[in-house]
Amino acid sequence: MTRQKIKTDKKGRIRDRHRKQKELYNSVLLDRHPYFFRYVYKETDRAWKKYLDEANTIARQKFCMDLPSLEQLPERTDEQEQFLADFYRYSPVTLGDSPMNLLCRYIEKQDFHISRKIREENNFDPSIYQDRHTPHLDIFPQVSRETERFLKESRAGLAALQSRDRREEENEASRLSASDRFQILCELFSRRMEAISPNPYAIANCLVDYFYREKPKSSKDILWGAYGQYLCRNIKNNKNISFIRFPMPCRRNGDLEYIKAI
FRET label pair with 257: which of 159, 168, 193, 216, CA 20 to 30 Å apart? Predict the structure, then answer.
């Protein structure tokens, strides 16, 4: 659905006998998303950002100020008033004070200290997971290459397995659960690593470097699934503590309960 054009003559004067009907239709036509939808649809967000950037550029060129400064002027010229009216009229999103728009603007103004939290997280030192008395740098290149190869093969194998399962008849007894598959994957990974070095602590040190330093955004499930026991022992030794408590979902009520790991 699009807006109906109101006919004008060559001098710009309105010559449309259906003017009132068209103006009413255009005023109630829902052809734009509300402002808060920019956080729902990427296309809407891109359109709004582009429109706002262009409007700010024009405002700086014509009035030597950006759009927020123009809106805050106590008195504006007719040209400035027309510019703002056109800005709201042709905006790709509706900017009215609906409850959701107001809530959205309120949240945008809040400082949740996200950047500070990210910096704090980036200060984490993964060496707490490593055995500081076990050298490993000499085998790290080989461990890194083999880990990348294994992860690539496992992803391809998992995709093939899932495709086969979809083609088979529904027979739950013949299928492995996700946890069983992951356990097998961890065992296969451990065997690959043992072929490089029989020392699990040296391998664990290499894998910590790989997953926490080389590939910090990658999933660490395979690391903890295959070598979690050695990482826990390293934590205990590095912190000089007798046990570690891990948060686990409680089956009774969904809360967290802390399991002691010796």
Answer: 216
Residue 119 belongs to a domain: no
Confidence of residue 169 (pLDDT cuts 50, 70, 90): very low
Please list, in sequence order, all residues whose beta carbon lies within 8 angstroms of the beta carbon of residue 212, skipping any fewer than 6 positions away. Answer: 126, 129, 220
Q: 242 and 129, same structural domain?
A: yes
Separation in Å, CA 224 to CA 73, 111, 123, 189, 207:
59, 35, 21, 12, 10
90 and 57 housed in the same domain: yes
Residue 136 pLDDT class (50, 70, 90 cuts): very high
Tell me which residue range forms the domain holding 223.
125-164+177-261
| Rounded average pLDDT over 235-260 | 71
The DSSP secondary structure of 168-194, one letter per residue, reads S---GGGS--HHHHHHHHHHHHHHHHH
Q: In whole angstroms, what is the distance from residue 247 CA to residue 217 CA? A: 22
For residue 113, the surrounding DSSP H or E stretch is: none
What's the mean pLDDT when you consider all of the chain? 81
Tell me: do 105 and 129 sit in the same domain: no
Owner of token pair 């014509």: 62
Q: How many CA atoms lie within 13 A of 86 on its CB side?
A: 11
Cα(29)–Cα(21) distance, rounded to whole angstroms? Answer: 12
